[in-house]
């Protein structure tokens, strides 16, 4: 089995999201907000919300991994997300997939 594919990395990330949701007792109406972030944006999200699950991914895998994760949660891609590729992610310094629950701010 190849452990360095976007599909495998997405499965690992989704596994972590589901485990944390169960651990923190997410209710039926609660869900993850999934996005791409720079290191500074990731730090700001971690400061403001709990729990936060993030992973740093190689730019060549990030677009496909992100699309898989968003599709699994039924979240639509906007036009910029649909058009993203490794080069655009490097230029924007977007290296992290970050998931948080907007209904659970840090107090």
Give a brief outline of the structure:
By secondary structure, the chain is α+β, with helices and mostly antiparallel strands. The protein has helices spanning 6-23, 39-48, 62-72, 79-83, 86-92; strands spanning 33-37, 52-56, 96-100.
Structure description:
- There is one protein chain.
- By secondary structure, this protein is of the alpha+beta class.
- It has one domain (6-100).
- Helices cover 48% and strands 14% of the residues.
- It contains five helices and three strands.
- The chain has a three-stranded antiparallel sheet, sandwiched between helices.
- It is globular and about 35 Å long.
- The mean pLDDT is 92.
Oligomerization state of this entry?
Answer: single chain
Number of helices: 5
Strand order of the largest sheet: 1-3-2
Give the SSE string. Answer: HEHEHHHE
Distance between the termini: 42 Å
Secondary structure category: alpha+beta
Percent of residues in β-strands:
5-15%
What is the 3D form? Answer: globular
Kindly give the count of domains.
Answer: 1
Parts with pLDDT < 50 across at least 5 consecutive residues: none
For the report, how would you describe the main beta sheet?
3 strands, antiparallel
Average per-residue pLDDT, rounded, comes to: 92
Radius of gyration: 14 Å
Number of strands: 3
Helical fraction equals 40-55%
Features:
107 residues, alpha+beta, three-stranded antiparallel beta sheet, globular
